[in-house]
Amino acid sequence: MVNTLAKSPSSKPAPTPVRALAGLLALSLAVAPLHAQEGPPGGADFNMPGVVRDSETEQLLRDYATPIFRAAGVNGGATKIILIGDRSFNAFVANGRKIFVNLGAIMESKTPNEIIGVLAHETGHIAGGHLANMHQEMARAQIIGIVGMLMGAGGMVASARSNRPGSAVGVEGNAPMGMILGPMEIARRTMLSYVRSQEEAADRAAVKYLETTGQSAKGLLATLSRFENESLFKTNGVDPYTLSHPLPRERLSNLETAAKGSSTFGKTDPVSLQQRHDLVRAKIVGFIGNAGEISRRYPLSDTSLAAKYARAVAAHRFGRSHDAQTQIDALIAAQPNNPWFYELKGQSLLEGGKARESLPHLRKASSMVPSALPIKVMLGHALVAADQPDEAIRLLTQVTQSDPEDSEAFQYLAMAHDRKGNTPQAQLAAAQGLFLVGRYVEARTQADRAKKQFAQNSPGWLKADDILNWRPPKN
Known about the structure:
mainly alpha, five-stranded mixed beta sheet, two-stranded antiparallel sheet, globular
């Protein structure tokens, strides 16, 4: 399984983003920071939505976000940035402490500042407690709707009585239904008004964080300009009170005033950061673009390092192994201290069936960036494939302890334990991996098998028991 820029074999249902879906009296409400579009993870096609892991991209976004988190007073250690394999320009917040960023947003952002602006906006939602406040506002809107429906029902009774034969006073035939639907509409508009205020607050907060960190709000402004151009034709004649966001033109005008009033509006990104951004964009295009798109974006006439990176990734991806190795070696010669080039070389060898040959390159990449867990998972995969289960178990156990949500690490840990004949540990690791990707029936089957072989109340027994006793939360 590819770990770098590869999805999990399957994924558990998508977490509800900040655009929380609320059942308010059969009303479905979508709250979408920036330009959110939801899609469930899963599948093997890079062009479909799903969680993606790539150490280089994750590290870049973390470096972008860390100063913003600090300025906002947000605990960066407790906040995760998760990549989604969707080509649309999008980012959103879920579960209060998780920022999801589509690969498409990185691909289409020409400067680091554009993505930094997006991260600043999403941090505004986190710092503002918008998810927690949303639940309170939903409850308030629900009360409005329920009371209104009760009043409407009372009105229907009165109407029925007033429309008895001989009654002099009556109402229009559709009015009783209007008495019920009216309060629901009031509840919906109350909720949408709250969401619009959240978006405006996140914009203002983003400008503040960017100024505090000495960065420009130009990127955020460019992003909203993109949305305004895309949605302009959709908003003519639309009732603004039925939109979950401010009208793009209005929102852009408000942000433009705040951004241009910032003392750091004229700042530009450091050259070194722009170079890293260009490399990550090229890598993503190489992994998810088709051959025509890659050659169009990075023609042979383009001799930049980013273009060479995209073409090397494409050569590996399309099975031109010898060509890929030659191009990757040239990248390493150009930047011998770039860990991501060694990672790509190791990945290319591993996926080309040369697991043992991949090990020194993956070890080197991992030693250069010890915090990059996806590289460690790939190294663990290579160790299993090279029949070195002892080292794989040690490494992958550390990874799962550092990141208990990495399903792929559990998958290879199960394989390593199986190679050693550690059946209960293999079954438990398999159960944990299956649980994380939402395959609960299979997870319980493996957990039940493992539990019977562990001593009662031992750590393995308790972990298996937790899986067996887990039940999905009720809505």
